[in-house]
Specification:
The chain is an alpha+beta fold. The chain contains one helix and four strands. A four-stranded antiparallel sheet has the order 1-2-3-4, with no helix packed on it. A hairpin with a 4-residue loop joins strand 3 and strand 4.
Length: 61
């Protein structure tokens, strides 16, 4: 099983993830509690409830 297959199994399209701490990113600052919805791009990429989109880095974000 590839990493992509494993992550798709863990976080299928439409999964909603809550940010537990502020995301200190000068390009996409987000506050704890914001909700991220996973898309089907083959990586953990999706859109924020408050607007914008982001690709998540596993183990970092």
């Amino acid at each position: 099983m590839t990493d992509i297959e494993r992550y798709r199994g863990l976080y299928p399209k439409g999964s909603r993830l809550e940010l537990l701490s502020d995301l200190d990113d000068p390009y996409t600052p987000k506050l704890a509690g914001d909700i991220f919805t996973v898309d089907d791009a083959g990586i953990i990429h999706g859109s924020w409830a408050s607007g914008g989109s982001l690709s998540l880095i596993i183990g970092v974000d």
